[in-house]
Amino acid sequence: MSKYFGTDGFRGEANVNLTVDHAFHVGRFLGWYYSQDHQAQIVIGKDTRRSSYMFECALAAGITASGADACLMHVTTTPSVSYISKVDEFDCGIMISASHNPFHDNGIKLINRHGEKMEQEVIDQIEAYLDSARELPYATGEHIGRVIDYASGRNRYIGYLISLATHSYKDMKVALDCANGSAWMIAKNVFEALGAETYVLSNTPNGLNINDGCGSTHIEQLQQYVKENHMDIGFAFDGDADRCLAVDEKGNLVDGDGILYIYGSYMKEREKLANNTIVTTVMSNFGLYKALDALDIRYEKTDVGDKYVYENMRANGHLIGGEQSGHIIFGKYANTGDGILTAIKLMQAMLSKKMPLSKLTQDLKIYPQVLKNVRVQDKERALNDFAVQNAVREVSAKLGDQGRILLRKSGTEPVLRVMVEAPTNELCEENVDAVIAVMRQRGLIVEAKK
């Protein structure tokens, strides 16, 4: 586990544990690292948080001071930075965003020249530099870098998305919840260009209201709007628009598992599903696996994180994968989760099959799920305790092919997560509590102070 960078970048509260000084030095290192034999160019995008402007300036200052050019896409989406990093052959890309977190948090996501998440080797070198007293040389004279306006890259990405649509959206009433974030202009432009009757929610960012009661983390706003205003479909994005959740015409949520089911089965029907396989994480719903079994579609399970989904897809040649949260990767078209691309692909399946979204999910039964976090003294000891493992096996045997149990450790906290999926909430609660009771009997839990 890296000290600063997790699976989705360097994230923290702005100027508390992710400071402007951190950003400047990340820029200094990247500018120096990529300018060894040429004047490098690094593209930067940001979301709408107030602190994103501050971090953009700090990164650009560090990059140019080290002799590279900083090319600014301004407010844009994470997948657009990934796309432009690759097609315009930048040395690397940076996205300033804390995704679905509240406005006071922010993050620095690093993207390599192939549009993928930055290699761990480079991350390790950045972290070593941040913790050292090492002085990097400053560029001087004509070698000092430039700050370049690169809004044209954002427009080219919009054109790329539009080119991927296979149908006109004429006469389709589409609601878009942009989370007061990165998608607030881009999503509307794309859907209107494709002919949709477009209704946009949460598209008045002020630097403080990103993800505030809106977007993919607060889907209930969009559900109500779609139902009350008789929309054909609704899409909700997160702060940097790398994830998407959908709402059908009846106001029902279609999450990432539902999207994988709809588009995966659509690919199989057209003989486009490479290796007849969809990549999921261990947190995908048991109901998705039952539905895929019924269609004779295979699936892989990775650790939680779109990074691991993408690595599995790339290593094995799979073309679709994602997370329940709405990070969906379409390997033929992108190297990262892309919320607007996901919406376009879902529209394609719906319009091609001439069915409403609710019809496309009718054979997918999402099982009730209960997940409880348990604070423990030692994660490894608690996870591998023989009595706890016996309790997990007993629950698994009891549920049989009608549910499942998952016991996993948090990557960032002294916490074990106990999750059960079963036909009823009561069964879920009963079996989660049974495992937690064994952990308590074994003295593994850190009890809350009274």
TrEMBL record:
Post-translational modification: Activated by phosphorylation.
GO biological process terms held by the UniProt record: carbohydrate metabolic process; peptidoglycan biosynthetic process; UDP-N-acetylglucosamine biosynthetic process
Gene3D superfamilies attached to this UniProt entry: Alpha-D-Glucose-1,6-Bisphosphate, subunit A, domain 3, Alpha-D-phosphohexomutase, C-terminal domain
Cofactor note (record): Binds 1 Mg(2+) ion per subunit.
Phosphoserine: residues bearing it: S99
Sorted UniProt keywords: Isomerase, Magnesium, Metal-binding, Phosphoprotein
UniProt: Mg(2+) binding residues: S99, D238, D240, D242
Domain Alpha-D-phosphohexomutase C-terminal intervals: 371-436
InterPro entries in the cross-refs: A-D-PHexomutase_a/b/a-I (IPR005844), A-D-PHexomutase_a/b/a-I/II/III (IPR016055), A-D-PHexomutase_a/b/a-II (IPR005845), A-D-PHexomutase_a/b/a-III (IPR005846), A-D-PHexomutase_C (IPR005843), A-D-PHexomutase_C_sf (IPR036900), A-D-PHexomutase_CS (IPR016066), Alpha-D-phosphohexomutase_SF (IPR005841)
Entry-linked CDD domains: GlmM
UniProt enzyme class: isomerase
Cofactor(s) this protein requires: Mg(2+)
GO MF annotation list: magnesium ion binding; phosphoglucosamine mutase activity; phosphomannomutase activity
Family: Belongs to the phosphohexose mutase family.
Biological function: Catalyzes the conversion of glucosamine-6-phosphate to glucosamine-1-phosphate.
Protein name: Phosphoglucosamine mutase
